């Protein structure tokens, strides 16, 4: 149920499962979406039977390519059944055409109980069982092949699939020539005794 929707809609993928065919509306309806876009449709399913809390109600559902919902009952349907919505308690009072009323209770939801680490430690000390679990994504992303990597694809021989030995000799040897007599740089350790520091200074 959506009091912000002017009409009632049914997802086109969900409507394909029904054993009925839509009717053509005498006009094309341009539906604005919350994301700022718009969709045009001219197909409607008349008098669709909907079971709510064991009560059968009917609605005219306009076909629309929805992704997150199967059916949206908008203001046209809510006003037809003179609905009174209690948002805090998630209760909707509906009045049937014969004058009888019934309540539809929405999903109250549930919350996962959370305890502190100290309390959990106490429970474990008393002999309660504890389980350590973590989520593992079994879907592995397909790695790129050498042909899909720019620049690398131009030199496939440099990146063989298996490295069985040292790289082969190239036409140009790369070396760093040092000046004769060059010695490693004398670098003082991070910590030095005061007496040794005085000798070096």
What this model shows, in words?
The chain is α+β, with helices and mostly antiparallel strands and 201 residues long. It has a domain at 9-105: Cathepsin D, subunit A, domain 1, CATH 2.40.70. 13% of the residues lie in helices and 26% in strands. It contains 4 helices and 8 strands. It has helices at residues 12-15, 75-80, 117-125, 194-200; strands at 9-11, 23-32, 38-52, 55-64, 71-72, 84-86, 91-95, 101-105. The strands form 2 sheets. A 5-stranded mixed beta sheet has the order 2-3-4-1-5. Strands 6-7-8 form a 3-stranded antiparallel beta sheet, with no helix packed on it. A hairpin with a 2-residue loop joins strand 3 and strand 4 (55-64). The protein is elongated, with a radius of gyration of 36 Å. The termini are far apart.
Q: Which strand order does the major sheet show? A: 2-3-4-1-5
Based on secondary structure, the structural category is: alpha+beta
pLDDT average, as an integer? 77
**Content of β-strand:** 25-35%
The total strand number stands at: 8
Oligomer: single chain
Query: What helical percentage do the residues reach?
Result: 10-25%
Distance between the termini: 84 Å
Any idea what the CATH architecture of the domain at 9-105 is? Beta Barrel
* Radius of gyration based on Cα positions: 36 Å
C-alpha geometry: elongated
Mind telling me the CATH class of the domain at 9-105?
A: Mainly Beta
The name of the CATH topology of the domain at 9-105 is Cathepsin D, subunit A, domain 1
Task: Figure out the total of helices.
Answer: 4
Low-pLDDT stretches are none
How is the main sheet built?
5 strands, mixed
Order of helices and strands: EHEEEEHEEEHH
Pfam family, one: RVP_2
InterPro entries: Peptidase_aspartic_dom_sf, RTL1-rel
Protein name: RVP_2 domain-containing protein
